[in-house]
Amino acid sequence: MAYFFRIEDALRSNYRPCKRCRPDLFQANYEPTQEAVGQVQQLLESKYDQSWTLEKLSNHVGISACHLQRLFKNKTGLSPRQYLNRIRIQRAKRLLLNGKMNNVEICYAVGFREPNQFYAAFRKETGSSPLNFKRSQ
């Protein structure tokens, strides 16, 4: 068994860096799981209007659905579904204030498949209905 005090010495002796802790990145706070969570966040932020399931998201990042759910909740404080709904509601609020679309059109534009889901998520996130939100602004 060989011990090295510097990464460069180990590399010169033809040892490879650990694939889990990645000491070659020289980052004290590197967390491999953060990369998967970040990929899911970027995906949901850019394609919020598409239909997403936990299974689809987990296939995209290459980890199990249960593991993704747990990691995502630990890192963000929200489940992937809650995170997606928050993004959709933020977009819906902007569209409501724009005033060019009605509630049902906004519902479908931000990715909800049913108006009831949209109204329930909007009320949960903002504490009011879309119409009351628009009137209060």
From TrEMBL:
Family matches, as SUPFAM superfamilies: Ada DNA repair protein, N-terminal domain (N-Ada 10), Homeodomain-like
Cofactor(s) required, per the database record: Zn(2+)
One Pfam assignment: Ada_Zn_binding
A GO molecular-function descriptor: methyltransferase activity
One of the protein's GO biological processes: DNA repair
Alphabetized UniProt keyword annotations: Activator, DNA-binding, Methyltransferase, Transcription, Transcription regulation, Transferase
Alphabetical list of SMART domains matching this protein: HTH_ARAC
Domain HTH araC/xylS-type: 38-136
InterPro entries for the chain: Ada-like_dom_sf, Ada_DNA_repair_Zn-bd, Homeodomain-like_sf, HTH_AraC
Record-linked PANTHER family: ARAC-FAMILY TRANSCRIPTIONAL REGULATOR, HTH-TYPE TRANSCRIPTIONAL REGULATOR EXSA
Name of the molecule in the record: AraC family transcriptional regulator, regulatory protein of adaptative response / methylphosphotriester-DNA alkyltransferase methyltransferase
The organism of origin for this protein: Marininema mesophilum
